[in-house]
């Protein structure tokens, strides 16, 4: 009996040591990921227009930025959890000490298209894989508008993750939090878009920079969120509720955040506010693109 207890104790101790080593390994990996430096080739021939029509286009495109950076674009608590830690979204206004105070055009391009700060470090939870799909024209309009924001000074606490949160991040339990790793950097050096219309081709472009596949899956038939407390993203092919909606239903949902079934879409989960400011033509193009996709059953990820 004593020998059994002895070997059981040794086994438990060994497992504890292995688990501790794994946690330390993934925590160290997370620290290294945050400090990596990258230097992709940046296209600097993007025009930054300043006419009123371009600035208005930039304003419309910027509304989606408010989801993370606040209605004043000056940053806010992105998450604040004693078990995970604290992270604030950066201040996008050109105020003293803000993240973008000294940004040149190349720095904006590096952040928006490549998910990097000016020093080449990867930006965390910055959806550059979708925003970076903006055409050169639209990207120039967005950058131009952001440069006109009123400077707002807002103290924001430093990012601080707990030891275990870093270990979980390094193990990939929060999904890929660094979009730099999944961006095809060569393909985003210069992007052209089809002319604005209600055609599915424009809808495909619209869906790319709005990041529809980032949440709803590569086939758009639903996917789980990497955030364990967030609900799964719905099936938005005709195999889901979209198949029952008219164009008017779709546009009203994008404008109000309430579906024909009476479900309210929480804007921090489904960013409909950024969609609501776009024209009927653009929303119709998105609807036509989604309706043109194969009608699929819910993905295995979201089936009950």
Question: Care to describe what's here?
Answer:
The structure is a single chain. The protein is mainly alpha-helical and 304 residues long. It folds into 2 domains: 193 residues, no CATH class; 93 residues, Orthogonal Bundle (Cytochrome Bc1 Complex, Chain D, domain 2). The protein contains 12 helices and 5 strands. The radius of gyration is 22 Å and the shape is globular. Strand 1 and strand 2 form a beta hairpin. The strands form 2 sheets. It has a 3-stranded antiparallel sheet.
Q: What's the quick description here?
A:
By secondary structure, the chain is mainly alpha-helical. It has 2 domains: 193 residues, no CATH class; 93 residues, Orthogonal Bundle (Cytochrome Bc1 Complex, Chain D, domain 2), CATH 1.10.760. It has 12 helices and 5 strands.
Total beta-strand segments:
5
Q: Order of SSEs, N→C?
A: HHHEEHHHEHHHEEHHH
Major sheet details = 3 strands, antiparallel
How would you name the oligomeric state of the polypeptide chains in this document? Answer: single chain
Helical amount: 40-55%
Strand content: 5-15%
What is the tally of helical segments? 12
Spans of at least 5 consecutive residues with low confidence: none
Radius of gyration: 22 Å
The whole-number mean of residue pLDDT values reads: 88
The backbone outline, from C-alpha atoms, is globular
In whole angstroms, the N-to-C terminal distance is 47 Å
Output the strand order for the largest sheet: 1-2-3
Structural class based on helices, strands and sheet pairing: mainly alpha
Number of domains: 2
